[in-house]
Amino acid sequence: MASQPKKNDWSATQYLKFNSERTRPVYDLLSQVRPHVQSDSPRIYDLGCGPGNSTQALLDAFPGAKATGMDSSPDMLEKARSAVSGVDFVQGDLATYEVGKDADVLFSNAVFHWLRTPARIPTLVRLFEGLKPGAVLAIQVPDNYHAPSHRLMRETASASSAPWSSYFADAQIGDLSSSSRPDLDPIEAPGNFYDALIPFAGSVNIWRTEYHHVLADAHAIVEWVKGTGLQPYLHRIGEEGAKKAFLEEYERRLGKAYPELADGKVLLGYPRLFVVAVRK
């Protein structure tokens, strides 16, 4: 039996409930990476590899590749090692991780948004600047700070006189100057990424896509974000009754923000920003 994730660790099982939807951006990002990779056996680093779904997609695209997957979560890495063979999966911190000088592709699916604004682009530039000429940096990040799914996290957590209110009394939700708050920082404008990378790049390709995922209902949206952006909120709530009440109120608000379709399902709009840069 697989071990349970440690307290405040990620849950690979929760994350993979929507594996198909979460992996779709990986293929969209890969489609813009392939034309830049000439080697039959590229050296690939998958930063924030999670449970290995992105790593497997990379190996499918480049069958002769040698790959390293890095993640901060022991539970994610355990799942990745059991799902994908022939890959060196290592635990690390994105903000300080160093890739080898032999890297041909530096790939990252949905991890740079976890860095705060002061560290995000500088970390990206540090990693890109260290690549050899012709190497490719490819990242994708959710860009949904203002989407109802994430706005309602902040609003629900900030509710007064609720069973969970005491757990967020000092959380400074929405205060972008606070690095300890549970809400993540908004993603910078595309031009910020371009301006930071172009001094070191032969080309920079940036695009933004909003996916519209058909989900069963508002509860399914809760299940989706429980595997990602809702985790920092749930980790703050130390009592199970308060956590249950928080989730119920959050789901109620989602139900109003995401109206039912003709068949009773809902559409979860999920915007993502993509960046592909080639080192000059």
Automatic annotation (TrEMBL):
Protein name as it appears in the record: Methyltransferase domain-containing protein
Keywords linked to the UniProt accession: Methyltransferase, Transferase
Stretches assigned to the Methyltransferase domain: 44-134
PANTHER family linked to this entry: TRANS-ACONITATE 2-METHYLTRANSFERASE, TRANS-ACONITATE 2-METHYLTRANSFERASE-RELATED
A molecular-function term among this protein's GO annotations: trans-aconitate 2-methyltransferase activity
InterPro entries: Methyltransf_25 (IPR041698), SAM-dependent_MTases_sf (IPR029063), Trans_acon_MeTrfase_C (IPR023149)
Single GO biological process annotation from the record: methylation
Domain of life (superkingdom): Eukaryota
Key word Methyltransferase present: yes
